[in-house]
């Protein structure tokens, strides 16, 4: 009888105080990811003013993928699951894809803000609402096409394709994200400061600073696992693996970032914060 047929167990045996704390931490982390992202998601959905801005469409995308990531973490983080190709308890590459979608959303949001402040006239002509939604739809479709391909080919081919793709993609996207962050910082610091004071300038500056801070935290959470994978690829050795997803700090960090991202959105956007506190959470408190 194999381990899978016996049934799933908790992330660690609940036979010590430390193990119980780890188990509870993962439950609270999953709950926090879901509740915070749902709150921000609803706040944007119910506000026509927020929905009219393209940058909030990327926030919606990030929140939705993080909600899915939080739901999946009740499985991969709370239970004894090793989400690898040869594991009978794997999620068929779906759970990590939700985290990857958040990564793509923030990268797309950076490019969107750069285009908006560097060439505002061209941006207003090119990036209509439909085109913004098309960009978001395209990377969601791309992500799940990759999931389908990985599940249709043999494990050996899937490992090779994903290994090469992740290796090259991680290097290029990290370089692009860091480059965009530096460029956006200089735009916010020098270019926007030369514009005459106005509400529009302040909105531009706050939106740029917000995506810069979000990207910095995102890189801080993702770079450890990226560097780990890159070093393993260069060394040609098998990466050290933990017992399961819920005890691997390199995979816990991106989940913690899924809690920080909505908090940063709320902290950096006055309009979003007003709707969240004044409508969403107030309504929940009255009917709780």
DSSP helical segment count: 11
Biggest sheet statistics: none
Q: What are the secondary-structure elements, in order, as H or E?
A: HHHHHHHHHHH
What helical percentage do the residues reach? over 70%
Radius of gyration: 20 Å
Poorly predicted regions are 1-6
Termini separation: 46 Å
Query: Pairing-aware structural class of the strands and helices?
Result: mainly alpha
- Mean pLDDT across the residues is 86
Total beta strand runs: 0
Globally, the shape reads: globular
What does the model show?
The chain is 79% helix and 0% strand. It has eleven helices and no strands. With 288 residues, it is mostly helical.
Outline the secondary-structure elements.
Blueprint: H1 3-6, H2 17-45, H3 48-51, H4 54-76, H5 94-118, H6 120-126, H7 129-152, H8 155-191, H9 199-235, H10 249-268, H11 270-286
Helix pairs in contact: 2-4, 2-10, 2-11, 4-5, 4-7, 4-10, 5-6, 5-7, 5-8, 5-9, 8-9, 9-10, 10-11
């Amino acid at each position: 009888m194999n381990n899978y047929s016996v049934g799933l167990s908790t992330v660690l045996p609940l036979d010590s105080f430390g193990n119980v704390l780890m188990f509870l931490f993962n439950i609270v982390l999953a709950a926090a990811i879901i509740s915070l992202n749902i709150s921000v998601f609803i706040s944007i959905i119910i506000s026509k003013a927020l929905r009219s801005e393209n940058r909030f469409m990327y926030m919606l995308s990030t929140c939705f993928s993080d909600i899915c990531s939080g739901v999946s973490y009740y499985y991969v983080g709370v239970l004894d699951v090793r989400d690898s190709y040869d594991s009978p308890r794997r999620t068929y590459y779906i759970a990590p894809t939700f985290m990857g979608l958040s990564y793509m959303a923030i990268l797309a949001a950076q490019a969107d803000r750069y285009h908006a402040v560097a060439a505002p006239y061209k941006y207003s002509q090119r990036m209509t609402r439909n085109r913004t939604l098309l960009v978001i739809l395209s990377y969601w479709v791309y992500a799940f096409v990759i999931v389908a391909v990985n599940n249709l080919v043999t494990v050996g081919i899937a490992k090779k394709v994903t290994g090469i793709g992740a290796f090259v993609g991680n290097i290029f996207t990290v370089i692009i994200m860091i480059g965009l962050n530096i460029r956006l910082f200089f735009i916010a610091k020098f270019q926007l400061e030369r514009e005459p004071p106005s509400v529009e300038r302040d909105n531009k500056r706050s939106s740029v600073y917000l995506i810069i801070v979000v990207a910095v935290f995102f890189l801080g959470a993702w770079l450890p696992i990226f560097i780990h994978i890159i070093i393993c690829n260069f060394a040609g050795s098998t990466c050290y693996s933990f017992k399961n997803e819920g005890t691997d700090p390199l995979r816990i960090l991106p989940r913690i970032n899924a809690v920080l991202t909505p908090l940063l959105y709320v902290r950096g956007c006055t309009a979003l914060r007003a709707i969240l506190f004044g409508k969403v959470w107030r309504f929940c408190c009255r009917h709780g």
